[in-house]
């Protein structure tokens, strides 16, 4: 499968149906991160609540982002103990990240222009959201390449040679070891 998703399709065909169904892990890489709400069948709920529920059910969640989240995201985040205390939730900040990708269980991924925001992922009103595009795919080779690349980011493989370290508020690895 290799499917182009445009605008709201990112939300309706990937974010909404796929993230809550994760069984093993969800990896999210984004430059910008703000509060985002998803349809919880009876009410709209924060994506952070969905991620918290996944962690509580044993699903590992990894979040890599480039800048501090928006204030409402931070307020919402503090409500979910599993995101704060569980080893299944991992979060790092790298100011060089500009990638937008979501990998679910190593079986499917979305890569595109959309940040993890309601406007980016198509969850906002039609007249308020961004114009975005991306692809969903399940090709094993591309999934493996993407997951290896995300692992390298997460483990700080690029930190050693990074020439932007002076601007990094929370370096992934300590170079003074």
Basic shape: globular
SSE series: EHEEEHEHHEEEHEH
Q: What is the CA-based Rg, rounded?
A: 16 Å
CATH homologous superfamily assignment = Endonuclease Chain A
Q: Class in CATH?
A: Alpha Beta
Report the uncertain regions.
none
Helix content: 25-40%
State the total count of DSSP E strands.
9
Number of DSSP helical runs: 6
**Total domain count:** 1
Widest sheet, order of strands: 1-9-8-7-2-5-6
Mean pLDDT value? 91
Secondary-structure-derived class: alpha+beta
Could you please describe the fold and organization of this structure?
- With 177 residues, the chain is α+β, with helices and mostly antiparallel strands.
- The chain has one domain (2-167): Endonuclease Chain A (Endonuclease, Chain A), CATH 3.30.870.10.
- It is built from six helices and nine strands; from the N terminus they run βαβββαβααβββαβα.
- The chain has helices spanning 9-18, 47-56, 71-77, 81-85, 118-121, 140-155, and strands at residues 2-6, 25-30, 37-39, 44-46, 60-65, 89-93, 101-104, 108-112, 133-137.
- The strands form two sheets. A seven-stranded mixed beta sheet has the order 1-9-8-7-2-5-6, sandwiched between helices. A two-stranded antiparallel ribbon has the order 3-4.
- Strand 7 and strand 8 (108-112) form a beta hairpin.
- The radius of gyration is 16 Å and the shape is globular.
């Amino acid at each position: 499968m290799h499917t182009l998703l445009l605008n709201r399709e990112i939300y309706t065909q990937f974010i909404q149906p796929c993230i809550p169904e994760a069984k093993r892990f969800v990896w999210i890489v984004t430059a910008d991160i703000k509060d985002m709400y998803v349809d919880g069948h009876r009410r709209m709920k924060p994506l952070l609540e969905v991620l918290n529920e996944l962690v509580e059910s044993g699903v590992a969640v990894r979040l890599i982002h480039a800048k501090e989240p928006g204030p409402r995201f931070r307020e919402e985040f503090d409500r979910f103990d599993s995101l704060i205390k569980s080893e299944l939730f991992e979060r790092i900040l790298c100011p060089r990240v500009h990638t937008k990708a979501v990998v679910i269980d190593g079986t499917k991924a979305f890569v595109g222009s959309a940040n993890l925001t309601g406007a980016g992922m198509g969850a906002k009103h039609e007249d308020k959201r961004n114009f975005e595009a991306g692809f969903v795919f399940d090709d094993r080779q591309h999934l493996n390449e993407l997951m290896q690349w995300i692992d390298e980011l997460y483990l700080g493989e690029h930190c050693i040679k990074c020439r932007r370290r002076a601007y990094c508020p929370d370096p992934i690895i300590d170079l003074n070891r």
